[in-house]
Write a structure and sequence with these properties.
This protein is mainly β and 240 residues long. The chain has one domain: 4-Layer Sandwich (Glutamine Phosphoribosylpyrophosphate, subunit 1, domain 1), CATH 3.60.20. It is 15% helix and 40% strand. The protein has five helices and 13 strands. It has helices at residues 6-11, 42-45, 91-99, 105-109, 197-207; strands at residues 19-24, 30-38, 47-51, 55-60, 77-80, 83-87, 124-132, 135-146, 149-161, 167-172, 189-192, 213-222, 228-234. Strands 3-4-5-6-7-8-9 form a seven-stranded antiparallel sheet. A six-stranded antiparallel sheet has the order 11-10-1-2-12-13, covered by helices on one side. A hairpin with a 5-residue loop joins strand 12 (213-222) and strand 13 (228-234). The chain is globular, with a radius of gyration of 17 Å. 40% of the residues are buried.
Amino acid sequence: MNTLNIYDELKNNPYPGRGIVIGKSADSKNAVTAYFIMGRSVNSRNRVFTETADGIKTEAADPSKLSDPHLIIYSPVRVLGNKTIVTNGDQTDTIYELMDKQQTFEQSLRTREYEDDQPNYTPRISGIMHVENGSYNYAMSILKSADGNPDSVERFTFTYTNPLNGIGHFIHTYKANENPLPSFEGEPKKVEIPNDIDEFTSNLWNALNDDNKVSLFVRYIDIETGKATSKIINKYTKTN
């Protein structure tokens, strides 16, 4: 698989939907993840990321404009011990709760399927990072309909052991900006990961379509110490 420039990938797709990047910095020091959300409707765009005790959550930027919290208000990132969970929906909580009961990442996702937003049937994309005692591995998952047919659920899990320096994988919800929105196809795309969190955050944000981008979260986790550094960018400002 060719290694792609993620900024070019984003610039060439005005609406990839929601996206997860997980990988390892080029200097081998950090486990890296990024999660972004985009929106075409007023309800989808009316969101911000805010920090929580163990990750982040989405909130309405303007609560008076929130018409339907279903599928847009959730916790994209949560931390369970030495594991960081990143998803595009409330399956974050499913993974957290079932892994806390000794089930695996893949087992926990067998209890879920694609989103109930016909005719798009948006896939559920998820990732998990395991950083412990200087070692690091990660996995990614997509749950999707069978080419838009809701009668069948397709489940794919991709695992990455001893990730290569400067390499990550990128998965997003939509293949193209069409109606209905076609689901992502294939395995996660191999992309380059830089050393600097500020550089990565800025370049990702600038590459996202200006009309559709909503929020971006980036986290670098020191593989030796487990210390995390995070960045959040919100297009919209939260109001009371």
